[in-house]
Amino acid sequence: IMVVLGNPPYSGHSANRSYEEVEVIRQTPGKLTKTGVTAVARKSIIRQKNFIGTLLDDYYQVDGKPLGERNPKWLQDDYVKFIRFGQWRIDQTGYGVLAYVTNHGYIDNPTFRGMRQQLMKAFTDIYILNLHGNSKKKERTPEGGADENVFDIQQGVAIGVFVKNTLNPPADGSAQVHYADLWGKRAEKYAALGQLSLDSVSWETFTPQAPFYLFSPQNLDLKGEYDRGWRIADIMPKTLLGSNSHRDDFAIAFDKNTAQSRINDLANTLLDDVWIREKYGLKDNRDWKLNNARSKVTSVTQPFQCLYRPFDTRFMLYGDYAFDYPRQEINDHLLYPNFALISTKQTKEDFSVFATNNPVGQHKLATPYDGSYVSPLYLYPDPKNPQLTNISDWQTEKDGRIPNLSRVFVKAFAEKLGLAFLSDGKGDLTTTFAPEDIFHYAYAVFHSRDYRSRYAEFLKIDFPRLPLTSDKALFAQLCGIGEKLVNYHLMRGAEGWKLITRYDVKGTHQVEAKHPSYKPQNTTDGLMPETTNGRVYINKTQYFDGVQQSVWEFKVGGYQVLEKWLKDRRGRTLTGDEIEHYQQIVVALTETIRLMDVIDKTVTFPMA
């Protein structure tokens, strides 16, 4: 029996190229002479797919169509190439076993759906023992205990055993997948692996289904319930990945003056490129060149306020003179009165959404590791091209804006609610509803803990889906709660909020190394139940007092908000505005937790 066995390298920056650089000579037209045009031989270097690059083409297709992924780079990971090579080698014999210990990302990441489908076609049975241990995603056991990696690395791993049995071939693409998890500490995993065999593992056997062909089991009844909702990208057609600079230390600044100074340096023709590169540590790449960037900057170029992290507003050098991918086709609409929903398409982290009324200065806003997508509520005409985008034929309203909403979705929701749709602003919620009502309703639903836990496995693999209600009273309630949440997250009216924390100790106001740190202070007055408040220290002596532990630990996606905001400011001296802003964040998070409790008491799933 042919057996391909191993522990191939895991590296997104593959050392095993999928192409070869080949020198070719082309005959191109030269000078015009009396006898005609002379031919000139010119040398050039082109890339041609090599053996493994050609084999990998199969993984970029699913159901006979291209994947359609904006950035399928993880299919070039070394371990993927080794799996494809092993698959090819087994095919040469006609039967055999491929057994690898690899990165476990291919099990359920949507980018690998074509790979999974091809493996199902190539093998009879597929055994996946997921060893987890992904510290990047802070994996925990189902009981909440510690989960360690068997190799003491950050990337989670899995054992995959792929069996091709020609004596019992499956129907095309109907291979059986046998799945099991192994959680716990490293020593516990070693002990279990030393005793287990394929026959003794408690496998869950299933046949993966379209469109993702996941190698981990799903609750199909629950999936059917979830799939009745509407994908955010289908509700709001103008949805794109957030911006990415690859040089945030330069493209993003904490204050406007610093950002403007950087722009002025770019525009100053007396400063040469070498000086600017050394001052700011700038390097050219495929998508950005310093000399080209400087040609786009003038004396009137201005920075813009942007959302960089949850509750963290900074200033961005706005445009492709600083960003590889500025996403101006999204951000331009956020230069005007607007809202945008920030969500994930796929993530290993806890599901999260957030709102912004500013351009976004980062593509990892809802989670630290996975890309966040931005869906503006309104679309504005381009001053250079007054014709509006062709995704909608809505009648324009004030300022020429139109709602970034699918007519098919709006029609379906209007019929379900029995309300007429207005294409701008808010409705009265008794006879009419409008774009901002939809936005607020969705924001409330997506902040339901029940929604997040009930549909957790599906929220990791695609855009969130919005269930629709026919209950007008419930719709109105959720619109009201969602509007409050949006206002807290946009910090609207924050200057009038009553602060619930204190910052009284005098000092340098500098966020020092190894800070922030949280120290609980248990208090009780003998009448009320004991509460856990605490102090958030920014250095050895100064702290924000009166921060509830639940608020300190509250996360938006993978970001622990209060910790992250201060951690990003290590070495900085906080201004008075920043000190007040931090205390306002505490208020916003406290109210978020309270409103999430209200939502859980208001709505149940599935929705009627």
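[next item in queue]
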Amino acid sequence: MLTKRITFWFFALLACIFFLQGYLGGSSKSLTWDEPVFIASGYSYLTRNDFRLNPEAPPLMQQLEALPLLGMGLRQPGPDHPAWTQGNHFWFARQFLTENVDLIQDIAHRARLPVLLIGALLILSIGSWGNRLYGHVPALVGVWIAAFSPNLIAHSKLATTDLGCTAFVFFAVYALWRAFRAEGWLDWIICGAVTALALLTKFTALLLGPIYLGIFAVRLVTHPAQRVRSIKGLLITGGVALLGVSAGYNLSFDPAYYVEGIRQLYASATPGYKFYLFGQVSEDPWWYYHIAAFLVKVPLPIILLLGLSTVLVFRDPDHREAALYLLFPAFIIIGASFFDEANIGLRRILPAFPFLFLFCSLTLAGVRHRLMTGFICVMLAWTSIAALGIYPHHLAYFNLAAGGPEHGPQLLEDSNIDWGQDLPALAEWQMAHPEASPLKLLYFGNVPPEAFPAYGVRSIPISRADTRQPSNGYYAVSVHHLIGFRKAPELADWLSKYHPISRAGYSIYIYRFK
């Protein structure tokens, strides 16, 4: 029998396992498309107290990621550089990395550490809340699933905003749950502070507004005696959150920064961009895109446990209030994705994941039967195998029903499989195949690989003519561009027409023509 104390040690162990999977796996991955922008912009926020770069993302995660870099003596484009004067964050990021090219691996390593730590804290928080909702043993189900979720691990080892938003949205709703049960006003103040932090991670956290209001509306009906106190508490939370967001831009107390950031959402979207889903191309996004991505990118045992929990919640009225705090936020986050203007990755609904994972704890709390316990243990073991089997390529994970990561390019693109993360794997392949010279490369990344000799990739560009009709030689092509060939009728569909001889990770395909 697992005691409460032993279970908490299991929570800590699983948090460490989660951290190690991300830490060790991230060491073999190059900077992805978005990371240079977040790192360089955050560094400018800290060193120049100026927020002109990358306004479409709030500053908290960017500053946290840049914080470990302050003692490195890094160089950045000067105040007269056009990238700075024009507020061009992509150009600024490329120049920032070019000026610190010898330190690129150290920069990536340090910038990713804060995200990993937040991810480990998320695992512990799932255990803490799960213990209060379902008991310490059932909470192990949610913690285990989260600790071995390829999707959470993938984004925990990237210096971006997605994992930070996921964690702080969860922290905020957990704080709200605690505040509704507290006797004093301190919990409402804490809820407001955590809400402010969530709002400063990513604008997706604005969904906390309808989430709070929906939960509050239900409580007005189910707990009428607490109406006045709940209203006062929400007002305190809202006031503290507004104050915290205003202070979040280096204590400027100017809400205009945040409002301007909201206006900039999708401002950098490329007109005429073609979206991709299950081999189909469209100029308009699919409303069901993120649900489809969920079904192919989440391990099957997690989907089965979610289905079982949904059945059990209708049979067990004692756990329906807990389900409100877990399913309603997930419903709002996923529902909002139906109106998303950009189908670019499952990461858009990543904040729903911790709520869904914790909801799976109901499988052990709702039914105490030896056969059920055995089934759950098999599902947890299967989840672990899925995560360990894809290591260190978590970003490219696809479940067995989808055909695995090898079949990924037939289904989804962008941050679902290729975000420019496999330059070290390509360098390793080159070392093992010296005959593949010269190597023609078409890489999807924010910074060209030749700018980073530390990765060790030696290549020449692929010509436009070669994309139509490749000449003899060795080619390495990012999956993002292979799907781009499929989108352009005038180019050859390499995915259908040619067979690669190898891969670098799962995001760069290698071909030989002779």
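[queue empty]
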